[in-house]
Task: structure prediction
Amino acid sequence: MIPRDERPLVALTLGDVAGVGPEVIARAWGESPLRTLARPFVVGSKAVLERALASVGGQAIVTAIREPEEAEPTSRVIPCLEATEQDVAAVPPGQVDPRAGRAAYDFLVTAVGLALQGRVDAITTLPLNKEALHAAGVKHPGHTEILAEHCGVTDHAMMLYIGPPVGAGDAGLGVVHVTLHVPLRSVFDLLSVEAIEEKIALADRALRPLTSGRSPRVAVAALNPHAGEGGLFGDEETRVIAPAVARAREAGIDVAGPISCDTLFVRALAGEFDAVVAMYHDQGHIALKSLGFNRAVNVTLGLPIVRTSVAHGTAFDIAWSGRAETSSLIEAVRVAARIVSGRAHALPALAR
Result:
């Protein structure tokens, strides 16, 4: 797609401008891994990005572009595609602002459109704020739901992923969630054999570009303590989860479960599994973020495009204070590049 350079063209969405997103990009731009991994450019606001550079003492300049094909990123030049009509130049840091919420939505939708047109290889998103989205009249609670609507998919999931150390050959560990941004009391009603089986299949497909084509080893988490203890603590394991695992295994997926979470993540971190299918948000997030908060990356599964994201939020409490970490952004771009490369190498095999 990009004959002049093998590095993927990656659109970085600025996220909520009241949060740490602009600062993270401004600080990360001076770190060479960001540009050795990919050819990044920003989808956002030139004025905000210039403010962020000034706040961190960055030496780069922001260059306005109209098309992604114009992007020529260097250590001293940040290409920026203006992507909103909202006046966000003076949005105050660390506060919920509907202008920032609408702009974050605009940045994302613009980047998705470019990816669907095949004009960028991947998108990597900086965090948005759910309250600001709501204040701006956006009906969706977060990135995943917006992406699913604009990509026209219903079978999708979010994977929280930690890659292997640089230079290592293993796949890392991903956690895919059956339910995501819903109240905990709703989880039991939303779990079904079909929903769990779908997420097992998504986990299997998602890890293949990261496992050099071998079959990923997938584990499925139990919902109740001690996997229900034979029905004493709940019957979801025997009634819903185990049948989904059996159906996925019959479809040829290397899958085990349901496994009690008090032992599952110990086994996964020891390298026994490449992916874990968790039943709800915190069941997967707490374990993986405890392993490596600054290395964790979000990957949206089931999309026709490649999308990764930092795993942290807008961090309003430290926004624009010079304290935001850049490692999650660099890892998100690294994972995006690995997925793009893995998919490209998988295409010839699929064609045979």
Q: What stands out?
A: The longest strand covers residues 39-44. Residues 347-352 have pLDDT under 50 and may be disordered. The first helix runs from residue 21 to 28. The two ends are 21 Å apart (CA to CA).
